[in-house]
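so my prof wants the structure for this chain in the C-alpha cells format not the other one, which i didnt know existed until like an hour ago. anyway here's the sequence
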Amino acid sequence: MSDSSLRAVGWARSLPLDTTVKAARDWAREHMQSLDWAESSPDTVDAALLTISELVTNAHVHAHSAADLVLTWDGSCLHVAVHDTSSHLPTPRPVDFERPNGRGMLLVDALSDTWQARPCPAGKIVHACFRPSKGDAGDGAGTG
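here's what i got, hopefully its the right format
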C-alpha cells in the first residue's frame, strides 16, 4: 500500500471587523517564522504579508465581513486563504489614477505565484500561493 497522504503545517484565525490589518499581518508573520524557508526567502514572506493585508482589507471594507484567514504550508507552496461572507468575486481592475483605491487584486496578482477566487456556500474564498526560491523550501516544519 502506498502512502499518498500530504504532510502539511497550517494555522487558522478568525479576524472580526474590529481586528486591525496589522494584527493579521503580525499573527501571520509569527507563524511563518516557524517555516524553514522564511528567513532565507524574506521577499516571499513580504509578498505573502502584503497579500494578507489586501485580502483582509477587502473582507472588512468591501464585504463588510469578518475574515477567516488560513495559512497552510504543504512543502512547496504557502497557501494563503481568506474567507468572507460576500458572494462578489474580486477581479483585478485596470488602474485608474483618479481613484485612490482599487489596486489590491492587481497587487495580489503581481505578488503571488497563483491566485483564485471561488464561491462557497457562505460567501467566497480567495486563495493565493507563494513558493519560496528553489532550494530554500526545506520541509517547512521548522523548530520555531
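also thought this was worth mentioning. The beta strands are 9-15, 67-73, 78-84, 114-120, 123-130.
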